[in-house]
Amino acid sequence: MRQEWFKEHIRQVHVDFHMPEFPTDAINEFDAKSFVAEFVRADVNVIGVFTKCHFGNAYYPTKVGHKHSGLEGDFFGEVLQEAHRSGIKVIAYYSLGTDAYAVQQNPDWYQINEDGQVRGSAGTVWELPCLNSPYREELVIPQVLEIMNSYDMDGWLFDIPYIDGHRCFCPYCKKKFKEENGLELTVELYRDNPKIVHDFARNSAERCMQELYDLIKSIRPHVMVNCNGAWKMGESDAINATSDYGLWESQPASGSYLCHSIKARYTRNLDVPVQIMTVRFTEDWGMMSCKTPEQLKYEFASILANGGIINIGDQVLPNGRLQSGVYDVIGEAFHFVKERETFCIGTRSVPHIAVISNNTSSWYWDSGDAAMLGASKVLIEGHHQYDMFYNDAFPDLSAYRVVILPETVSLSDESLSRIRAFVKAGGVLLAAGEASLNRTSKRFELADVLGVDYLDRSPYEFGYFTENESLWKGITAIPQLLEAPFLKVRASTAQPLSWIQWPLTVPAPNRAFRYRIPPAGNVSAFPSISVNDYGQGKAIYIAAPVFSTYWNTNHYWIRSIVDALLDKYDLSKPFRVDAPTHMEANLMRSDDTTYLHLINFQNNHTGSRSASSYDPIERIWPIHDIVVQYFDDSVQEATLLPENVSLPFRRLEHGIELIVPSVHIHSTIAFK
Known about the structure:
Elements (H helix, E strand, L loop, with lengths): L4 H4 L2 E6 L15 H10 L4 E7 L4 E2 L7 E2 L7 H11 L3 E7 L4 H6 L29 H16 L4 E5 L11 H11 L5 H6 L1 H26 L17 H4 L5 E4 L9 H9 L6 E6 L13 H12 L4 E7 L8 H15 L9 E2 L3 E5 L12 H12 L4 E5 L11 E4 L7 H12 L3 E5 L4 E2 L4 E2 L2 H4 L1 E6 L5 E3 L14 E3 L4 E5 L3 E9 L16 E15 L2 E6 L3 H8 L2 H14 L5 E4 L4 E7 L4 E7 L22 E8 L7 E4 L3 E2 L2 E4 L2 E9 L2 E6 L1
Helix pairs in contact: 2-3, 5-8, 10-11, 11-12, 13-16, 13-17
GO molecular function, one term: hydrolase activity
Protein name: Family 10 glycosylhydrolase
Keywords: Hydrolase
């Protein structure tokens, strides 16, 4: 049972409380009334509250587990009661995959790595019990049952549902693995067949979560259940089936402020609500710093305007209190959200470009799929309207006008047929690199659509695009470098738009240049960019991994070339925005109104790229006089929100044009 309230309560705070027992003042100043009062004044409507932390300490009177020695009362119960009294929903947090107390008291519950060592015992919080050990039967299940029978919470969050690295060699895993597979679980087997070991560990996590889900629903069917990472891109169907809502951690300190927007553009098309979880900390969980109100407003706007649910992580002080100054900042940012949420909640994306992409199962974007990230970066900076889908899990494409296949996409025969039909019916396809390349047959599965045939690999790790005047918009009229290997393809029916220009040579001791990449040399006979007519549509092919390269190099000319291709062949754009690349545009719709969101981003200069992962946002300066064209003949009025100011516009042949006087952080134009 999935509750609608979760979609409407988007001002959420996750209150971290991983607290060791050695501080002498641990939890000695906790007071539930003053604790919850911070949330009330900050306009928070959902909080995540701890029942058990990574150290294995329980925050309620438990007969099963180990209650934190500094806690005299009932932290979870008192906060739950006070929060409900104030109209705030409560998610019960439970540390599943890390429990220092449990494994230190029961060493046979430890996960064991390939070297035969326990995962933990390093004096950190990361002491990892195995889900296949009696830890589940003797502590987790009894403790969850105890909590369920004592409290009426609104939801659950189980953290770290997986065995570390999807492999464990403890006696309990070995026993179960042999019973299920008829094989000995050994390091040698893992090296020879890692898939069978990974699948076993993943399945163990899935069955653990299913057991917890069934237990909770049998007692309180209305309570929502989730495990950290559920419903993120690439997560397993079995894990998703045990989660009524999703959670995708999203920390800009991982390297990009685009992460919130990218994740929301994926999750907004799912059947369940998904939290996009940032943090108050400038760099990582538990670092007792605080972002500026300006930064949190920007982060919240990028989640809110893209259809996501805002959740921000905080940290309780050792004494059990919250930092009031932090809630001054969070409150200012949530007041900003409250002014805007009425025209954001319940809206849906306007379909136009569908990015169909792969992704790894990593927690954070920068260790994820660079091709998907790069495609998103190109489109957001180019003010394109797009949604994102995971490999075969894309919807009916009839409402979309463009499909983009980044180089790492993995598609079934059925999905390839659907894309072929999309282009034949008049759609535009843009594919890059190995998209649709069958490595076994050495042919493109979409060769007929792309109008090119795969021939061979290149000996070079880099190369150049020859100049095409119509595509070189705003970039220098020279061959443009790509720091990635091109593919050699032959044009069958496609029209080449640019050719691969090889570098002069591969650098070697007797063939050195001033820079590690030599200048451009011979122009090859192989197209680097081509376009093909297929049915009523067109297919653009770029013979290189341009999207991952753009993410990894930030070479602006790559984005500019892709932008020019989309401008040339995407003739049905829903809008155009004349603004800098650091402004994001996104179109959402309710039953009778369409909303164009404009989000302005600016951050400080980077210091040491190797030593610092954080570029702060201290103040965002407004952008003025932004020209917007919206291509809909039926528009009768345009209103700037949240100011509720009518905007004058002039009629175009197929739509309207207006000027937005100023955008500070987030402004919205409502079209009716």
